[in-house]
Amino acid sequence: MASFVDRVVLHVSGGTGGHGCVSVHREKFKPLGGPDGGNGGNGGDVILRVDPQTTTLLDYHHAPHRHATNGGPGMGDWRAGKHGETLILPVPEGTVVKSKDGRVLADLVGEGSEYIAAAGGIGGLGNASLSSQKRRAPGFALLGIEGESSDVVLELKSIADIALVGFPSAGKSSLIAAMSAARPKIADYPFTTLIPNLGVVQAGEVRFTIADVPGLIEGASEGKGLGHHFLRHVERCAALVHVLDCGTLESDRDPLSDLAVIEAELDKYAVDMSYAGSDGEVVPLNQRPRLIALNKVDLPDGKDMAEFVRPELESRGFKVFEISATSHEGLRQLGFAMGEIVQAARDAIAAAPPKVHAPVLKPRAVNESGFKIRREEKNLEPLFRVLGDKPVRWVKQTDFTNEEAIGYLADRLAKLGVENELFKQGATPGDMVVIGEDDGVVFDWEPTMMAGAELLAAPRGTDVRFADIGDRPTRGQKRDEQVERREAKAVARAELEAERKAGIWTESVSGRRPKPLKESALDTENEE
Prior knowledge:
Layout: E1 7-13, E2 46-50, H1 58-62, E3 65-67, E4 87-91, E5 95-99, E6 104-108, E7 114-118, H2 127-130, E8 149-156, E9 162-165, H3 172-179, E10 197-203, E11 206-212, H4 227-230, E12 239-245, H5 255-268, E13 290-295, H6 300-315, E14 319-322, H7 331-351, E15 372-378, E16 381-387, H8 389-396, H9 403-416, H10 418-424, E17 432-435, E18 441-444, H11 464-471, H12 475-501, H13 517-527
Parallel strand pairs: 1-3, 2-4, 9-11, 9-12, 12-13, 13-14, 16-17
Antiparallel strand pairs: 1-8, 2-7, 5-6, 5-8, 10-11, 15-16, 17-18
């Protein structure tokens, strides 16, 4: 069975940015000419763009996964990587882009209208761009970031001025074929029309588009038949034309009962008001101008039925036209009536004052730090989660196999104020710190990782702070060493005291210091 695809779920992802390059310029007599690593290229974007040659979403139904090209890596000699190519996805005019939860992201009306469905990732900086007066020869580069990934819902809403609605086999396809150059499928069984058909009608100087919507039945607003699936195609129409079958052979049907059923279904159908914005200009279907076309008056029973129900319909305020899609009777008058409604709607839009959307300025707050820290608990242990665009992006750009790159990340976080905020929230050394959401990077917080290591001499690609952390004794180790020294001294004193009492060692006679000469002479004189 043929199917018309007017709603698809598209999985899009932007290209990944290229990594930065770590390189040192070398030439004759200049073995160390400074860093010359180039930046990585940005990943390509995925853009939805209105193309007048595209009329269906069938291509995305068969291939819903679309990915833009990645950016190239940077190279030495200051050569930047190639940017990824933008992926342009053509969509029909009237496509509404929604999120998985139903939030409208864009309403693509007008040739060339576009929406960035997935932005590409930014490329990483090379070591030439990271060099500064304090860090003259970086031994690291930043990594490229993955592009955005999202699932968007594309819904096609036909762009037409007039919509033909009615029961199956009421003659809507025959009517659009008689009034325009459209050639829809026409047969003598219900639900012949499986897709909305569009046709262009010229009524005097007014040219407009009419849409043939698949037949509606009772319960269409609840999903019965094909009507509920295609009612979205009449949401953009300025007016509705009820095509009523006056020559039906079913005994339980007549034009008045058919009109009551269709009107009830239009009342129950909730028009999607979200894509119109906050001005609320979308008018419900049951409040739009409506015309009545009593079809098949070329049949004897059809002519009698039309004359019978016409006074009742006119008493309700409808403009009624007796037509025949086969003999073209009354089509000219119906076409001019449609043109008047369309021209009135266009004049109202032209006469309306232009909409000037004042730009909304959102200046950054004075006390806004660009991040926030949320305290959590995991396995009865405190956990501090750092959230913010900058910290999360910096972590993704860091090469954790390079000590200097990790030190550069620590410097950036400290400069942003993350460490001071952790102190304020009561974090202690060894607490778990996570940067990002569920897939964030986990750290054991070490507050001694202070900034300024770029001023210390160290081999490229290393950071002296990591070596210090591994060799520096903790307070407990220092306390244990001090206790061991005290105990060793006490044992040594006890051994010496025991040896002295045991007479193992005595004072040597030869080691006595002789008395001064003057004192010896005085002693002799005293003896005499």
